[in-house]
Every structure is written in C-alpha cells, then in structure tokens.
TrEMBL record:
This is DNA-binding response regulator. Transmembrane segments: none annotated. The lineage of its organism: Bacteria, Bacillati, Actinomycetota, Actinomycetes, Kitasatosporales. Gene3D superfamilies: Winged helix-like DNA-binding domain superfamily/Winged helix DNA-binding domain. GO terms for molecular function: DNA binding. InterPro entries: Sig_transdc_resp-reg_C-effctor (IPR016032), Tscrpt_reg_LuxR_C (IPR000792), WH-like_DNA-bd_sf (IPR036388). Coiled coil: none annotated. Keywords: DNA-binding. Residues 146-203 form the HTH luxR-type domain.
Amino acid sequence: MRQICATLAALTESARHEVLTFDDPAACLGLPIPEPFLELAGTCVRTAAQRVATVRQIVPRHALSRVTAADAAGAAHLPGRARLTQSIPFKMIVVDRAVAVIPLDLELLYNGLLLIRDPVVVQALVRAHHAWWETGDEVPARPLPPGALPPHLRPVLEALLAGLTDETAAARLGISGRTYSRRVGELLAALGTTSRFRAGAEAARRGWL
C-alpha cells in the first residue's frame, strides 16, 4: 500500500498541464480498505488541481446514489470539471498525456496498479476519456458560501503575499502567465479592490489567511 500511495502522490505531484480521470467513488464502499487510502486519490487530484489548468473527471451516475448524502452533494466537491456518464470502462488517472495509471483489477487501485508510459497506449486512453467525456453531463460546481475564497485562488493569494513576481508565481503554479494574470484579476475582484497591496489587508480582514 505504501508503494501505491507513493506512486499516486508522485504522479499527481508531477502534473503540470492536465489531469484526466475515470473514477467511481462508490466502488470502495463496504470494502475493508483503510480510510487514509480512500482519501488519497481525491486528495492527490485536488492538490494537482491547484496547479494545473485542466482537470477533467468522469464519474458513473450510479455512484451518486450509493455514496452518503454528504458525498452525493459532494460530487460538486470534485476539483476541476466533472461529468456524469452511464458507466466508466475502468478507473484511470492520466497526467499530462504522458503517463497513465489503471488498477490491475480495473476497479480498485488498492489492489495494485499498472503504470503506463508507452505513448501509443497513453494516447489511446486519452481518446477513450475524450469519447466518454463527450457523452457525459456536466456536474455543476457547488456554490461557495458567501464570502468564501474560491479554492483555485488560494495559491494566487499565497503567491501575492509571498511577493513573487507574476512570472515566478506562474511557473511555480505550473500555469501560463496569462492564466495567472487572469486569476489575479479574479482574486482582486473577489476582494473588491484593484490594489494588490490592499488585497492582503482585505484577505486578512475576511479571515482568508
């Protein structure tokens, strides 16, 4: 289990541009799998979503009726964009169209995984994901509580407070300079200011720090 956890963590930590997944959050229900492991994949993808521009997750419809009420409302907790389809072919994570992970039994990463780097096979998996994505229905993002900091803007706020240049911050977050500038604009608008200097004070006033 330690090897699987380390591999998944390293894989998602290496993401710079894109993360694609097939996932069934209900597949592990009722199975004797340690709770920390159940949380691992979601945590890894959420962490990657803070740095990469594209995160697309595909989840089978039936999963929402099987998870707890909190988690069902929480399909909207899925980072990036998510779509519901009638089924998924197998669980999968593809990072930057360069490396993919699928479970050896196609359903549970806990039982072992296959790490794929062959470009032809990875491209085939990307195409499969695209085909399922096109048939899916968008999962709307859950509205944030009034006054809450959007998760994708927290790394931007931290970069501003650290005094990083836009170029350095964008490189550290693994996004383009244009995307970073756009997110800075979003952050300032959310804070109701046009001043980066005032942004820190306003963020502190709101309890975002």
